[in-house]
Specification:
Layout (H helix, E strand, L loop, with lengths): L12 E2 L2 E9 L3 E8 L4 E8 L5 E3 L5 E3 L2 H21 L10 E7 L2 E7 L3 E3 H6 L6 H20 L2 E2 L8 E4 L4 E3 L6 E2 L29 H17 L18 H4 L6 H10 L11 H9 L44 H15 L3 H9 L5 H9 L5 H10 L8 H19 L2 H15 L3 H11 L3 H9 L5 H17 L1
Antiparallel strand pairs: 1-2, 2-3, 3-4, 4-8, 5-6, 7-8, 9-11, 10-13, 11-12
Helix pairs in contact: 3-4, 3-7, 4-6, 8-9, 8-10, 9-10, 10-12, 13-14, 14-15, 15-16
């Protein structure tokens, strides 16, 4: 990592801890890799140094930038030490452990377990598309750790892929509690630097109603990214009109509709429409089942545990279907599909139909898409026959029609050569999954320049991403 002007130098000693290198820098401070000289143990040492209000003096002390910044710095230092004391009380295998905290250099320090492993973005890169079983195996322990945090009255408030590490044994651990805050107290205590795509809208302003649902939104964003290879749309852009595609539309592999619906539930822009506790969200994930010893997903008929996951049915006379963003489908037919499906899979039918309607090009395509949720083959056949457009029409025909519409739409905008060139260029950065990313982006992009802008989001390094866009757009304008 490049040097940071305010960072302590390698070899600097604080009590028994010797600074080895800088691990990271954020809005609230710096994190170092250090060695405990007494135990000969590697640790992560976090230093409170809010860049907006403090600087490093020549004597290594941390000082407020000005007299007006002094109160803010002191308040923040007090909160840092109080939070360190609380975090040190956490004992859970999936939460990074705080081992010690102390004051020195006129600021505060937190000594944490140094987690040897791989950050989730690096770990997942060679494993995409991730099997459903693995998605659930990672989500479960993180939820368990999060529940411990919430029970103490704290929120993490910065859950994102980079803050989840995977140990060598495959177990996940939640890192970086620099933004953690107690629920009680003033709004000032609940302001933070947000991570676009993972922070819900209530974290963007001091009047936002934050609670367990705030962390669950962020975790839902991580799961969305895991199943789709796409970062969620920034929350601030979803408030007036939700422009984000549902998980079912962007998933890069076959996942149960119940898993995808649970992810979408956690990512509701309105905090009141999300799961309100870890327990609610865990119960929703618990309904996602598969055959023993297999990662193959099977249709699941059980409803989500919480009725909050399903929007109420429209009032009498109300023919609107909120959330539809694709072609206009007949409202009466949509309601009929929902009613028939509900007889076979229960209340979750409303959400399944609503999500499928966002991308279906026809009622026939919608019916084929949702029929997979009916586990019993005879019931599934009967359901399909209810909506057969003519004698002898089959689900395969409907599926082929839907696929033809999608392929026609893409081919009308991009030649096979353009798509192949985009795939080859992107594959140099993200590997074989480039093909899926390009195909999904091509369905949304209006022109070649927009196609490259969309797929460039998958390149994590900002310099590489910028060069990729520049070369790609330049090449496309010469053609």
């Amino acid at each position: 990592m490049p040097e940071v002007a305010n960072a302590l130098p390698s070899g600097y000693s604080l009590h028994e801890y010797r600074i080895d290198s800088l691990l990271g820098a954020g809005g609230f401070g710096l994190t170092y890799l250090a060695t405990d000289a007494n135990l000969n143990l590697k640790v992560a040492l976090k230093e409170y140094l809010p860049a907006d209000v403090a600087v490093r003096g020549e004597d290594s002390t941390v000082q407020p930038k000005s007299a007006t910044a002094s109160d803010s710095f002191k308040w923040g230092l007090q909160r840092f030490m109080e939070e360190a004391r609380t975090l040190a009380s956490f004992r859970h295998p999936n939460i990074v452990r705080v081992m010690r905290f102390f004051e020195a250099n006129q600021t505060g320090y937190m000594v944490m377990e140094f987690v040897e492993g791989t950050a989730l973005p690096d770990w997942i890169e060679s494993r995409r598309p991730l099997p459903q079983a693995m998605v659930l195996e990672l989500a479960g322990p993180v939820l368990d750790g999060l529940e411990v945090i919430h029970k103490t009255g704290y929120l993490h408030r910065d859950i994102k892929p980079a803050n989840v590490f995977i140990r060598s044994d495959g177990s996940p651990v939640l890192l970086d509690f620099g933004s953690a805050r107690q629920l009680m107290g003033s709004n000032k205590e609940l302001t933070a630097v947000v991570s676009p795509g993972y922070a819900p809208f209530e974290q963007y302003h001091t009047q936002g109603k934050q609670g367990p649902w705030t962390d669950l939104y962020a975790l839902g964003g991580v799961l969305y990214w895991m199943v789709s290879a796409q970062r969620p749309v920034e929350a601030a852009a979803r408030v007036r009109k939700d422009i984000m595609a549902p998980a079912a539309q962007v998933a890069v592999a076959s996942y149960s509709n119940q898993l995808l619906a649970a992810i979408d539930w956690a990512l509701k822009p309105n905090e009141d429409e999300r799961p309100q506790s870890v327990g609610e969200f865990r119960r929703a994930l618990a309904t996602v089942t598969r055959p023993a010893g297999s990662d193959r997903t099977v249709p699941v008929g059980a409803p989500l545990a919480s009725p909050a996951a399903v929007r109420p049915a429209p009032a009498a006379g109300d023919t609107s279907m909120p959330g539809l963003t694709s072609v206009a489908l007949d409202r009466g037919e949509l309601k009929r599909v929902e009613t028939e499906l509900a007889q076979r899979i229960g209340p979750i039918a409303a959400m399944v139909v609503r999500n499928a309607a966002k991308k279906a090009q026809s009622i026939a395509a919608l019916v084929e898409a949702v029929a997979g949720e009916v586990a019993d083959e005879k019931e599934r056949t009967a359901f399909l026959r209810k909506f057969a457009p003519s004698e002898g029409a089959s689900g395969a025909t409907a599926r082929a029609q839907t696929q033809s519409v999608r392929e026609l739409s893409i081919s009308a905008k991009f030649s096979a050569a353009v798509l192949k060139q985009a795939e080859t260029a992107l594959a140099q950065h993200i590997g074989a999954i480039a093909r899926v990313v390009v195909q999904r982006a091509a369905a949304k992009a209006r022109d070649e320049a927009e196609l490259y802008l969309l797929i460039s989001d998958e390149i994590r390094d900002p310099v590489e991403r910028k060069n990729f866009i520049r070369k790609a757009v330049s090449a496309s304008t010469r053609r």
